[in-house]
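Problem 3 from the worked examples.
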Amino acid sequence: MDDRIDEWMKRAFGMGGNKEVHPKDSPAINLSQNSNKPNHPQQAQQKNKGPTQRPQVQGRNPQQRFNAPRPQPNAPRPQVTTQRPQVQGRNPQQRFNAPRPQPNAPRPQVTTQRPQVQGRNPQQRFNAPRPQPNAPRPQVQPQKPQSQRPQPQAQNERQAYPALKGELKIIPIGGLDEVGKNMTIFEYENDIIIVDMGLEFPGEELLGVDYVIPDVKYLEKNKKKIRGVFITHGHLDHTGGIPYILPKLDFPPIYSLPLTIGLIEERIKEFKIQKFTKLHKIKSDEKIKLGNFSVSFFRVAHSIPDAMGIIIDTPAGKIVTTGDFKFDETPPRNMQMAEVHKIAELGKQNVLALLCESTNATKPGHTISEKDVGEVLDGIIAKAKGRIIVASFSSQIGRVQQILDSAVKNKRKVFVSGRSMKTNIEISEKLGYLSMPKGLVIDIKKYKEKEIRDEEALILTTGAQGEASASLSRMAGGEHSQYKVKKGDLIIVSASPIIGNERSISNVINKLCMLGAEVIHTQIMEVHTSGHAKQDELKQMINLINPKYLIPIHGEFFMRQALANLAIKDCGIPEQAIIMLQNGDVLATDAGKIKKTKEKVETNYILIDGSGEGQIDSQVIIDRQIMSENGALLVLVYVSAKDGKLTKEPDVVSRGLVYPHELSEITKEISKIAATAYTAISAKKQKVDRKEIKNQIKRAVEKSITKRLDRRPLIVPLIIEQ
């Protein structure tokens, strides 16, 4: 049996000659056309008296494949010499009929002929002798290919920028280490464009200050270079500085989408500069050429319609700034989705730098959709039995639309309180960004409690940040002229507190609850969502655009650092390709690279106080801070107009210095000190300047108060001639 198996294997592998086996020498196997499995050999013998004829398939011999005799047990295996079609570059005889190598026999050299491939020499690759153990390695001299094939790039490898030329400067003068007063300068040779021109609401330390705006001294020196201003969206932290800054720069043209232009137009009317301002409404698919700059746009989702990112093409490279954004797949009916196809296309265009907002970079996940918030609000409004007050940002046009829709659905009239809320609703309706039935929205001045049933009233108001002069704060303090909060009112604060406003909002909520109202806010239900991207959306934006450099903007330092860490960890951005800036830093490009220069642009905080303007170190602000912490003291010194001698004891007026029961004793002491100081300096023979006399009185009084009360009030001496 073993001999037969050996003989069968020899014949099967071509080791026993080339004898052909004819189909007649073995029983035929019939395969029906409707079956993929062979029949049993005995069934095949009964059904088939001869070989089954099947249609010829090119390159195959069915007689040799299917009619070959089935080997019997212990029978020698026949040698198969089925002819297969010749394949170019192959010799089947050499492959299948070659003798099987014997154990320990030397390995034969294969000389199979294969077709020549351009740039390769197969003889050198396949026919080279196999190296023996411990033998010296032969030196292979491959044939040089006729043409060099391009090598594929690594995934994170950036292409070279051979065509880039010139120096582009990027100078942020607002928006870093803060949330507000966003403003960035882009300068190439003799051309400058500006992105955004915002303001910031002051902190508690800036007493009496209304707004803070960027310092534009650098632009004032270079205003002849300015070609235009591009505004990403209509929020005040991107548009609020326009009325104050634009006149200083000789009114360069402003470009933005229609709603943003409409809001700017209304604001500049308040300052009566509309005749000088050049406003240009654009479309998101436009491209605007200004000097060496070619500027195009892509829409993004945000908490206000017509928000956009900006693409800046220059000879030195392509720069993208996101503006404020998120990815909202289910926006309200008056809002837009991000133009993701445009953003993805940027990933193929070698973006040199991406300026990406960082506001929510510390927060994981994905921002809640505005539509989800609308559904929560609708559910609350539907269940409410009494009056409803909804406090929100006046610029949350998508939120306002959903509140109006819910009011119609639940048969409520909407009374609007707050100037900015009225203005934004009017502008948005006029431009087609808000839709509502005629007569739905009514001015709060027309609200009369006796004429409107509680279950029919919904008041839409400003003041969601606890601003002292806003409508909600005045309602909480019982100071609103048309509306008085009462027990049974439902108040929805549809906003999250901006950093620094937490205490103000808490105070307002406390007062409302004391008046008997029920207050729903973000810590109770999801009645608000951010307009800014969280970590998942930030990663999506960075990965889609795939920039060479990343510049985190729009946020406090810890927010921007969080974005940098996210980009390094999850987006594959090298640490050396992330640039952390401060306001006033100057970045410069150089043949596809960006570096921070030693140049620094002056960026003081410019304070807006009523109609006045000043810098952060203004003596007015310093005096206010002193008075707020230590009080104030007014010292009135009465002297003769003839000889300059005291006519009576000085009077002292104190505010915020000591308690009333201590005041009498303190003022008497201060009066004596002031009189002594005046007498001493006026007794000198040489003439003394009036200003120096005041300073001497001030120093004497200040020294006494500091020693006795350990306080440093604001001291103002006045000399009154009689």
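Problem 4, a separate protein:
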Amino acid sequence: MPPKRNQTDSNAAEICVETNNFRQVVEHFDENGNIINQMATRLAIECQICMCKNLPLVNPHFAELPGDTHELYVVLPRCGHAFGFLCMEQWARTQYGRSSRSSRPSCPTCRTPLHCDRGHSSELEAYGRASGDIKMQDKDIMDIRAMLLNNTCGRCREQRENAEQPEGPSASLVSSSQPTRGSLVASWEDEVIEVAFVGGGAQDDNEPPQIEEERLEDHTEEARRNR
């Protein structure tokens, strides 16, 4: 149950938010992204991959502005779990490299697939870019809440809209471009992770799917240099 908004008394019992499930985290913020109980709410959300850095989400009444112990984070749209941006990068590269080409990427916490059932690509935006800017933190929370409320795959929504207009030029294009099998390709550009499947279709079942590894390396290094 979300906390009541009138719990602003400094004598109220302290609330420590530690879960990395943002479906629960956003319950501690109002519709404008402000912490509801600012005088009693601590935010200490640890990345569940590295278990050593926190997400840069803070209550200035309790904590100093994010520093070396915090990192940018991503929120998975289907389940709501959040992880450090670089940790998610490393996890994706390790778990879905050459040794597990048949695997589909899933949440490290609950194993919910990152993709919809049709394997459409997913973009995971990095939040917490303006460390210490509470107004930007408020905006991040509003954006995350909106994403979680509307977690339907964007391409699936586009397909449904196209299906309602059968004469439209794009209605047949999307349906014909669906990969039937393939491998994970992840690219990192401008602090956005794009996870997608490629290959399949006419590919022989005995052939290993191809991975665009050079592209992956290039974008990963570029993202690191830009930080």
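Solution to problem 4. The helical segments are 22-25, 85-95, 134-149, 154-163, 171-176, 213-225. The first strand starts at residue 15 and ends at 17.
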